Amino acid sequence: MAERHLSTTIGLDAEELAGQTFPYQHDMALIEDLDLVAHTPGKDINWLEDIHLLQEEGVPAVFDRYSNSFLKIYFQIPKGREDEIARKVLLKHLISGNSYGIRLKQKHAKFLQPALGPWVKSSETVGERYRRPSLEGWEKPSGH
After folding, report:
1. Is a pLDDT exceeding 70 seen at residue 27?
2. Average pLDDT value for residue range 42-46
3. How many CA atoms lie within 13 A of 111 on its CB side?
4. pLDDT tens for residues 58-101?
């Protein structure tokens, strides 16, 4: 029998959830022209102020709260632009539909909402046909 080892991972990386990294994690040129204000939902700049450049396992990263994971950034970040770059990488991740949390909406959204969130004006909607999950062969006990 094969010996099992427990994982020692403390955090969860976005690429672990997706099974890949994304080009904008490696190339700053792919996020440079992203207009943060233009993509801000309802022009509510406050949500941007909560996004900061962090470190995950010694690598610059931004936290994606929609999938509860870190999105690592593998390119050199110019001094003084740390939070701006983190915000742009996260926004690119969200509007591209690559956030695991956004991908889960396709199956689990319980109410009508934009699939790509408020960042993309012409986003298709999800949540029209939500069905409560059920366990095959299980019946609710009587009296409950």
Report:
1. yes
2. 68
3. 1
4. 999 999 888 888 999 999 999 999 999 999 999 999 888 888 88
Cβ atoms of residues 110 and 33 within 8 Å: no
- The 8 Å CB, 24+ separation contacts for 40-49 are 41/117, 41/118, 41/119, 42/118, 48/87
- Residue 94's identity, in one-letter code, is L
State residue 84's pLDDT score: 95
Contacts for 92-96: CB closer than 8 Å, 24+ residues apart: 92/24, 92/30, 92/31, 92/34, 93/14, 93/22, 93/24, 93/64, 94/64, 94/66, 94/119, 95/39, 95/119, 95/120, 96/22, 96/24
Answer yes or no: is pLDDT of 124 > 90: no
Cβ contact 71:14 at 8 Å: yes
Quick check: 6 pLDDT over 60?
A: no
Query: Domain locations in the chain?
Result: 14-99
Torsion of CA 68, 74, 75, 81, to 10 degrees: 30
Q: Please tell me the predicted confidence (pLDDT) of residue 91.
A: 92
